[in-house]
Amino acid sequence: MIDTEGLTKKFGELTAVDRLTIHVDEGEIFGLLGPNGAGKTTTVRMLCSLISKTGGSARVAGYDVGNQADSLKIRGLIGFVPDNVGLYEALTAYDNLDFYGKLHSTPEARRKENIERFLKMLGLWEKKDDDVSTFSKGMKQKLALARALIHDPKVLFLDEPTANLDPEAAKTVRDFILELKGEGRTIFLNTHNLDEAQRICDRIGILNTSLRALGTPEELERTVKGRATVVQLEQVTEPILDALHGLSLGEVSVERNKVTISLADPEKQNATVMDAIFRAGGRVRSVNVVGSTLEEAYLKLVREKEEK
Amino acid sequence: MRLSISWIVASKDFKTFRRKRNLMYSIFILPVLVSALLPAVTNLMVQRASDHSAALTRLTLILPAFTFFYMILAGVIPAAIASYTIVGEKVERTLEPLLATPTTDSEILFGKGISAFVPSVSAVLAGSVIFMVLTDLITHGTLGYYYFPNWNAAIIFLLAVPLTVIMSVEWNVIVSARATDVRVAQQIGMLVIAPLAGIYVLGEINMVNLSDAGNLLIVAAVILLVDVLLFSLTRATFRREEILTKWK
Ligand SMILES: Nc1ncnc2c1ncn2[C@@H]1O[C@H](COP(=O)(O)OP(=O)(O)O)[C@@H](O)[C@H]1O
Ligand SMILES: [Mg+2]
Question: Which is the most buried residue in A51, A274, B195, B247, by most CB within 10 A?
Fold first, then answer.
């Protein structure tokens, strides 16, 4: 449904998105996860054919992103909720949706049906004649979701739909997204919230200008979840650290008398590590094997410098 | 380009205008004030004139000039509304979802043009009616006939005023695209009236004959030309990508 191949966007000197290659299947929730400034918004804007790409290629629902004629078709097939919802505050909820339905040339009967259906699903039907200026943040976010659905789009692009929402409103929005997936829609979700991505996405791409990892939440957990052995010593000395570095098993970090060695397989490698410490004259107080959380792994991935 | 889409955009703006009472007041108040003020000045001139022929001479000079003054109004009025409909959407961040719909830049731009044009022309023309009626009442005794309506007024109100409103809307779209502040946009937007004010002054001091229909048609033709030129400039300013990435 969405395919990109080396998709790139440069703003002058600055590369916002670097050679992004992803593939999103029909009916899938794909999460693009990354910190602020990672290029998530830029990616979605390119895919919605709002801004041009500067390199690579992309297709949405079979249409060519960047092709003048196709961009109208793409915008007709997709629903988009930008990071700033951008509702007309001086109009009622109903009029906001009706306006967008008209812009999409949705037939009147279908428009009315969809407005009622989505406002009811989101618990906003009673408020349909209220000005949007009276709405809470959560209500506005929900209304923006309804607006993006008014023309029965096949693909939905959601740019951080739960950012700035209180936990309860965020949960309603997430549940609604899952409900939409149940209707067979393809959903492309930008988020900086790892927990959210893990909970609702079928697959996640971790982005920080370039793609750092890609897979199902389980796959990511398996590949990126690092483990480490933590050794409490009576004293950390230079020879010990030299010996540990000499092993080249993984990253070594020191915190007072505690040495942490990242290991791929601690159970197998601990013996070698202990050996090295004893030979360097170290006296061990305790040894622990810890697993880093997915969060730590994610942060590490995101911070890693571009590898050539 | 589908005009129906432009009309949808304009209708949406009309709906928001109904909620923005202050904006509507600010558009209508100036033409109404001016239309009361100009006949008052006319009245004063007639009464202060030493004799009948002096009054006649003054009237033949100021009435064409006052009629022409409505072109300046037509240049001023759209500034408030065009900067509101465009800078307003930019500030409220409503442009991005709008641009994500299957509409072309021209359709949106044209819709914005209509939504600024309709109330502006209505306000100026409403003022012109008040002006013509009051002026006729005041001058009938001196002139012995009703000065309005006349061909020159028709050229100005029905041809030159709409053309000037279009020019002003276009100019204000270009300015709005660059401005972040509605007020600043309005002020720079006002610059459009400078040449018209120049002609008005020349008329007042009798350097340009504003009661000559030929002259008025020339002015209208020049404005039409400017309309066409500004149109392509406006088109170039209003591009999706630039609105999203450069309009700050
Ligand atoms: N219009 C623009 N002009 C210049 N740089 C931009 C523009 N938009 C975004 N950027 C830069 O591109 C990078 C990615 O931004 P963005 O896509 O908004 O990230 P995210 O949505 O992941 O927070 C950032 O460094 C940002 O400063
Ligand atoms: Mg963003």
Answer: A51
Distance CA B125, CA A243 (A): 91
Burial class (CB in 10 A: 0-12, 13-18, 19+), A286: exposed
Q: How far apart are CA B156 and CA B164, in angstroms?
A: 10
Separation between Cα atoms, residue B151 and residue B155, nearest integer Å: 6
**HEC readout, chain B:** CCHHHHHHHHHHHHHHHHHCHHHHHHHHHHHHHHHHHHHHHHHHHHHHCCCHHHHHHHHHHHHHHHHHHHHHHHHHHHHHHHHHHHHHHHHCCCHHHHHCCCCCHHHHHHHHHHHHHHHHHHHHHHHHHHHHHHHHHHHHHHHCCCCCCCHHHHHHHHHHHHHHHHHHHHHHHHHHHHCCCHHHHHHHHHHHHHHHHHHHHHHHCCCCCCCCHHHHHHHHHHHHHHHHHHHHHHHHHCCHHHHHHCCC
Nearest-CB residue to B100 (from A48, A73, A85): A48
DSSP structure class, residue A126: G
Q: Which of B18, B92, B99, B101 to mutate to test the interface with A (most CBs of A within 10 A)?
A: B101
Q: Is A243 helix (H, G, I), strand (E, B) or coil?
A: helix
A50, A75, A91 member nearest B244 (Cβ): A50
Q: Which of A77, A102, A103, A157 to mutate to test the interface with B (most CBs of B within 10 A)?
A: A103
Q: Which residues contact B233 (CB under 8 A, 6 or more apart)?
A: B170, B174
A38 lines ligand 1 (CB under 6 A): yes
d(C-alpha B210, C-alpha B207), whole Å: 9
- Decide the pairing of beta strands A23-24 and A29-33: unpaired
pTM (2 decimals)? 0.84
Report whether residue A208 contacts ligand 1, using a CB cutoff of 6 Å: no
**What is the distance between the alpha carbons of residues B64 and B15, in angstroms, rounded to a whole number?**
37
Q: Which residue lies with its CA nearest to atom 16 of ligand 1? A: A39
Ligand 1 atom having least distance to the Cα of A40: 22
Q: How many CB pairs under 8 A join A and B?
A: 77
* Ligand 1, atom 17: closest residue by C-alpha: A39
- Torsion angle defined by CA atoms of residues A159, A160, A166 and A168, in that order, rounded to the nearest 10 degrees: 80
Write out chain A's pLDDT in tens, 308 residues.
Answer: 999 999 999 999 999 999 999 999 999 999 999 999 999 999 999 999 999 999 999 999 999 998 888 999 999 999 999 999 999 999 999 999 999 999 999 999 999 999 999 999 999 999 999 999 999 999 999 999 999 999 999 999 999 999 989 999 999 999 999 999 989 899 999 999 988 998 999 999 999 999 998 999 888 877 666 678 899 999 999 999 999 999 888 888 888 899 988 888 888 889 999 999 999 999 999 998 887 666 766 777 777 755 43
